[in-house]
Amino acid sequence: MALSYKARRRWALFILLIGMPIYIVVAVTIVNRVDLSALPRLVQFLVYVVLGVAWVLPFKPIFLGIGQADPDAEDQDP
After folding, report:
1. Which parts of the chain span the membrane according to its record (predicted)?
2. What pTM does this model have?
3. Contact (Cβ atoms closer than 8 angstroms) between residue 63 and residue 56
4. Each residue of 48-72: pLDDT tens digit?
C-alpha cells in the first residue's frame, strides 16, 4: 500500500523532528562506547560519514518528492 503525498509529508516531518535526534543520540553513544580515538583519523571520518548517511537509506521512499508540489492536488489557476 503506497502512502499518499500528505502522509509521506507527515512521516517525513516526524522522522526529521523526532527520529533523527534519537538516531543522533544513539549513534554518538555507540561511537563513544567503541572508542574510535584509537583508529586513524581517516577511518574515524569514514565511520562518521557512513553513520551520517545510513539513517536516510531506509526512509528514501518517504522523502522522495516531498519538496515538490502535491501531485494529487487540483490545479489552482486564477
Report:
1. 12-32, 38-57
2. 0.74
3. yes
4. 999 999 988 999 988 888 888 887 7
